[in-house]
Amino acid sequence: MPIQTIGRCLRLAVIGGGPGSEIGEVHRIAARLDGCYEIVASALSSHPERSREAGRALGIAADRAYPSWQALIESESRISDRPDVVAVMTPNDSHYEICTAALDAGFHVICDKPLTTNLATAVDLVRKVKETGAEFCVTYCYTGYPMVRQARAMVHSGAIGAIRQVHLQFVQGYLAFNEAPPTWRLDPDRVGASLILIDIGTHAFHLGAYVTGLDVTDLCAEVTHVVPIRKVDDYASLLLRYSNHARGSMWVTNAAAGAEHGLGFRIFGEAGGLEWNQEEPNRLIHYKRDGFKEIVTRRKDHLVSEAARQVTRIEIGHPEGFLEAFANLYSDFANAVAARLCNTSAHDIQRPFPTAEDGAKGMAFVEAAVRSSSLGRWERLGFDYL
Amino acid sequence: MPIQTIGRCLRLAVIGGGPGSEIGEVHRIAARLDGCYEIVASALSSHPERSREAGRALGIAADRAYPSWQALIESESRISDRPDVVAVMTPNDSHYEICTAALDAGFHVICDKPLTTNLATAVDLVRKVKETGAEFCVTYCYTGYPMVRQARAMVHSGAIGAIRQVHLQFVQGYLAFNEAPPTWRLDPDRVGASLILIDIGTHAFHLGAYVTGLDVTDLCAEVTHVVPIRKVDDYASLLLRYSNHARGSMWVTNAAAGAEHGLGFRIFGEAGGLEWNQEEPNRLIHYKRDGFKEIVTRRKDHLVSEAARQVTRIEIGHPEGFLEAFANLYSDFANAVAARLCNTSAHDIQRPFPTAEDGAKGMAFVEAAVRSSSLGRWERLGFDYL
Amino acid sequence: MPIQTIGRCLRLAVIGGGPGSEIGEVHRIAARLDGCYEIVASALSSHPERSREAGRALGIAADRAYPSWQALIESESRISDRPDVVAVMTPNDSHYEICTAALDAGFHVICDKPLTTNLATAVDLVRKVKETGAEFCVTYCYTGYPMVRQARAMVHSGAIGAIRQVHLQFVQGYLAFNEAPPTWRLDPDRVGASLILIDIGTHAFHLGAYVTGLDVTDLCAEVTHVVPIRKVDDYASLLLRYSNHARGSMWVTNAAAGAEHGLGFRIFGEAGGLEWNQEEPNRLIHYKRDGFKEIVTRRKDHLVSEAARQVTRIEIGHPEGFLEAFANLYSDFANAVAARLCNTSAHDIQRPFPTAEDGAKGMAFVEAAVRSSSLGRWERLGFDYL
Amino acid sequence: MPIQTIGRCLRLAVIGGGPGSEIGEVHRIAARLDGCYEIVASALSSHPERSREAGRALGIAADRAYPSWQALIESESRISDRPDVVAVMTPNDSHYEICTAALDAGFHVICDKPLTTNLATAVDLVRKVKETGAEFCVTYCYTGYPMVRQARAMVHSGAIGAIRQVHLQFVQGYLAFNEAPPTWRLDPDRVGASLILIDIGTHAFHLGAYVTGLDVTDLCAEVTHVVPIRKVDDYASLLLRYSNHARGSMWVTNAAAGAEHGLGFRIFGEAGGLEWNQEEPNRLIHYKRDGFKEIVTRRKDHLVSEAARQVTRIEIGHPEGFLEAFANLYSDFANAVAARLCNTSAHDIQRPFPTAEDGAKGMAFVEAAVRSSSLGRWERLGFDYL
Q1: Is the distance from CB of D286 to CB of D272 less than 8 angstroms?
Q2: Closest Cα to residue D316, out of D329, D305, D301?
Q3: Distance (Å, rounded) from C-alpha C15 to C-alpha C18?
Q4: Residue of chain B nearest A58, judged by CA positions
Q5: Hey, are the CB atoms on B321 and A321 less than 8 Å from each other?
Q6: Dmax over Cα atoms in chain B, in whole Å?
């Protein structure tokens, strides 16, 4: 439905996510779900004819179903009812170029994670975002879950005291096969510094930072492959030190045979702990040092934080899932963009969604972990350049 | 996105679900989620001015944001790009009149449950549906979950053998208060034969029939209120006999203090059993007489039935929830309507969604249960009139 | 270890539980576990020679390893260091005769459940216990679990307010076979009024009464068999009314293919609820009307009731199981008997264990349920004769 | 009950575990539970008079309730019905001296973990065991659980293929207090190289080796304290490499506020995985690369391995717990000792229990981890000296 402050839906252009892509439809459902966006233009494939056809099949007007992202940005930046937002869901190695062009053309941007494929381009993109003053979201989508927002609010309110231990994991099984089908993910030349860290490690890394509000300062990593014939890494395990002297660990893999999604955290503070697993996203386990465990559940009443309620659509006991979490980032972003359209100053915008800075921190994490693993020692992780 | 066979989205008119309604936004999200519908007309409230305003706030064109459902049906039935479907989400006691009018005006209809408030009107509505030849869906929404579809497919394929025991429950706590706030649900004059059975008992009843493919033939019920000062019933417990001599039981309440949603089934057959709970909807427990329990999970691969895969949007481990289940009914219905628009004969239409007959069976169940409880004896439950 | 108040272990004679019996070894482990008993005499089998051999194999002195229970009671009642307690774990239809004889000979008695096979003998046994003044325990063993004690203490302290709903279930699968092996349990002539109710229904019935402190006043039952060729019942489902107007239901079966043990309760009161399942016995779920669910766990600290702590041996997180629960009844009983040996008056004895009265109530329940099922109507359940 | 092959119970002398000790009663229950042992002599405390009194309170004959362990070994080694087994459950820093003396006196020995407090004495004790030819058990008690035995049997049978990933954790909360009460555990002078690794890390380490059959070859550790004022370590996180190139990680802490016991493993191989958590010990989750997850449950039927059945006392669905697991080591050990008494050669003895070698490996692990942590680098872990 229209955003009340501006009396209309935001206009969205989508780049990438054409036939065969799963993430494309996820982005589009996220855009549709709360009715804040109307998809007005598309460049869905790197193949011009497929790109045009796929756009028209989505119901895009024929003259705005572009054959390429370049054509889209070129044309759409010049029309009067130009898109408010460009969403980029192409393969990782094109994010930098496309986002830069979209920012230069004056669009607000939503970019699928990872931000780019290395730290240098990521830092450059952060600079570009600052320069243009645009709103920018990287879809570390798991931060859209109401119970992740709740965990963050509880940590910030002191419910578990000063953070002392953080355990992060993302344990999947979809590549636990010797004979995995050919995919760009298994091609060492296209993967970047580390398949496993870029693909899912950055999600876990961001989740830890998002909930605790703490940065990792040092890490010691083992990044390798456990499926013998593999040419890219499929396993990483890390020791972490946080800015407040808390300690942590991370286990990420896509080669745990039979595992499904496996993203979760356990965080312990001076007075208690919090545990969340994405496969049962509507509940958060609250450990209490001096009491019983409580099962905090998604709901609209005042037992949960306002931050959680704001991203909750339906009453207690009716599960919301991954698509709703993804949609929450889109709707959060819509609110920020609408506020900008109402001339709210950039400084006063609420941004509960992950930003370009968060994306760059993820790339810094990947590079430090790979370096640590190859040198067999601890590495420092600083974000001074941000 | 447009339905490929007809090259466009279906046009939808919505009646009810205005300000303050939760179910209204659920229906609208369900319509938006897969992009099969465009909402073109509305009559959102029984208060004319509020109805118009709410429609415009939803982005409906001013001249199609009607002050009343009568005006909507009257006007929309005469225009050339008239709606394909009318969705009715008003209070229960208006369903019969509105649906009848919509059918008479030639629309296909989606109606929130319960179908009506008594068996006589329900049977009449079934007759009307047959007469008009329209497609009709009652939103017993829990049948939209992929794992409910999976359970049904497993029963039908013989995975647990002949059904022998069925246990149904819907154990909520939202009215477990002496001092519950005034709502039409607590007004004995508006509730109909039984609050608890109409409100949630019919969901459990339909779920049992949907999964097992069996009808209840006899029942013995206790329908009462356990909150002392209450004037409507908030508790029912039933003994059930099924058409194949299987036995069953049902426990439904909204007065279980601290319970959340609580809908679920356990069904046992000659060779095994199935257990599902709506609060963890992405998994189905498969008991095996001669083996270990298996956890059947929502996924897109061939370990699950085609029926489940057809209503699955995202890969294994990424939870789908209530809104997706609800959207599945809308999208199932869109497929049926689109097929009719392509001149597929009514006889050849796939209808995985609940129909008017299912709605009427629910009303027969309610009336038999109330009778059994007040007479303190078993009652027969026949559906010959359908 | 010796009971401190009397400076020695209690002397125990065991009747029944010989080769091939599982429950025999359970009773003996229960007697050994806390070291309160020394097994000094036995009559383990109805076959004289096997009875003697089995006794000697257990380490019983040759002259106290009797060929029959009659010989045991006859001889052991005349010696100076006679047993303090006789434990009876023979087939159900001999309980009445053996317990009567043991009571007449002046022994305290532990009897496996059910107390007898019909109400008349059960009532007679209650009378006999009163007459002799002996201590008597019926091993409804599930009441020995610390978290069942905790639930009872919480109900009594008002933690969930006045009881309003009780749901009991015992859903097993061990007889879910058409071709089940021959056992006395499937012989209608030996089973008594109802296999399913006597075998496991009485456990569930007692558990409900033990935790809530309420008696059932009326019931309406379906008692039948769901395995077609069976000659005894394997399924019962009941509607219950309690003395304080609370409502309840019960589902018991041994023919749920693939189910394991399946005993549990959910009890809701004005302010909250409690849920316990025997398969995860160390935790109790506490539903709160105005808060989150808490997971109450077995522990030695003051978050749990004294009643629970008293039957807890090891620290939090180290599971205790079925054998410990069973042993708790034995040790509770040892305390009662030791107190009697120290001349505590019968009136002042603590009896957290189930007594003969509880056993008789179970038989009354069975007979009322069978009558209700065959007449198809509600039956009253009174205990005035106790 | 008597061990059939030798026609009697084993005679057991216990050293340590007097008043105030929890582990003492655990050992004694473990000895009593299956009736394989008779406790005939004791030295329960380092305080002579308390030692004598506590022995008599346990029912030990006055002349065998010794004032000191030295007196016990001196006297008991000279009598004709001398103990078969000496069980040692004193504080860690006395294990070496007492075990050495007991072995020298010709007893078989059960020793609580850790074996000693450093590698040098542990290696010396292994040598002594070999020299004397005695049977020796270190009570890494978690290997007594039937589902741990099942996991080991499944790994060995190839059910999950070649091992690729091992994740071990032991996450407790009992020292998550700034103001923890004074205990020897918090005294850096008595704790040895590392409280957390000796106290619980060795359990996790042994469990991984026991189930996988693999040794750790290299590790990289962070061993520290997260409670600021603490003087001993309460946290360790490790990266592990296994002999077959599998990778692993370990997280152990006693300072996770609100956590209970928290021991568990997840192990993934080429074809599947296994997950077990001590707090729900009767089930083992079996991940299948090409199928659904199965819940493997403790039972006596042929769906589980013989190794699991051998340590299972009661039927499916009736939980066994920590005390039964501990008792399994005692009964396993009794079988080994009885076989030796029947002149079975040491070479042919089955030893499903942890041995002195396993104890020494634990000490090697502790020392390597502490070294790795203080040097900030990977360390090799060899067991050539064993």
Answers
A1: yes
A2: D301
A3: 9
A4: B1
A5: yes
A6: 64
CB B242 within 8 A of CB B381: no
Q: At residue A297, what is the residue type?
A: T
Nearest to B311 by CA among B287, B341, B331: B331
Chains that touch A (3 or more CB pairs under 8 A): B, C, D
Retrieve residue B117's tokens: 């408030």
* C-beta atoms of B58 and A2 within 8 A: yes
Contact A268 D176 (CB under 8 A): yes
Which residue type does B287 have?
Y
- Fill in the DSSP letter of residue B9: P
A306: which 2 tokens?
Answer: 């306002």
How many residue contacts between A and D have a Cβ separation below 8 Å?
139
Q: Evaluate whether C349 touches C135 at the Cβ level (below 8 Å).
A: yes
Nearest to B238 by CA among B117, B384, B368: B368
Q: Is D98 exposed, middle or buried (0-12, 13-18, 19+ CB in 10 A)?
A: buried
Res A180: pLDDT: 66
Structure tokens, C189: 């002539």
Residue C10, SS3 per DSSP: strand
Cβ separation B4–A324 shorter than 8 A = no
List residues bridging with A110 in a β-sheet: A87, A137
What is the C-alpha separation between A265 and A165, in angstroms, rounded? 10
CA trace torsion B328, B330, B335, B340 (10° rounding)? 150
Whether B180 shows a pLDDT value over 70: the answer reads no
Sign of the CA dihedral with D273 first, then D274, D275, and D280 last:
positive
- Given a contact cutoff of 8 angstroms between Cβ atoms, the answer to whether B161 and B272 are in contact is yes
Q: Is A296 helix (H, G, I), strand (E, B) or coil?
A: strand
B238: which chain C residues are within 8 Å (Cβ-Cβ)?
A: 239
Residues of B in contact with C291 (CB under 8 A): 258
Query: What percentage of residues in chain C have a pLDDT greater than 90?
Result: 90
The torsion angles phi and psi of C220, rounded to 5 degrees, stand at -135, 125
Q: How far is CA B332 from the centre of its chain?
A: 13
Q: Can you give the length of chain C in residues? A: 386
Q: How far is CA C295 from the centre of its chain?
A: 26
Rounded CA separation C319/B183 (Å): 46
| Minimal CA separation from B251 to chain C, in Å | 8
Angle in degrees, CA A222, A224, A228, rounded to 5: 145
Helix axes B146-156, B322-341, angle to 10 degrees: 70
ipTM of the complex: 0.96
Q: Which residues contact A335 (CB under 8 A, 6 or more apart)?
A: A3, A350
Q: What is the DSSP string of B342-383?
A: TT--GGG----S--HHHHHHHHHHHHHHHHHHHHTS-EE---
CA distance A160 to C32: 44
**By CA distance, what is A174's nearest residue in B?**
B316
Mean pLDDT, chain D, rounded, equals 95
Q: State the Cα–Cα distance between residues B106 and A318, nearest whole angstrom.
A: 34
- Cis check for the bond before B48: say yes or no (omega within 30 of 0): no
Confidence at residue D20, expressed as pLDDT on a 0 to 100 scale: 85
- The residue written with tokens 């006297």 in the block is D75
Tokens 């938006």 found at: B32
CA dihedral angle for residue C42, residue C47, residue C50, residue C51, rounded to 10 degrees: 0
Contact D295 B297 (CB under 8 A): no
Burial B257-274, CB ≥16 within 10 A → b, else e: bbbbbbbbbbbbbbbbbb
Q: What digits encode the pLDDT tens for the residues B6-65?
A: 999 999 999 999 988 989 999 999 999 999 999 999 999 999 999 999 999 999 999 999
Q: What are the φ and ψ backbone dihedral angles of D13, each rounded to 5 degrees?
A: -110, 135
Q: Which residue has the tokens 């810094």?
A: A364
Nearest in space to D34 (alpha carbons), one of C313, C16, C28: C28
Tell me the HSE value of D4 on the side-chain side, using a 13 A CA sphere: 4
Judged by DSSP in three states, A220 sits in strand
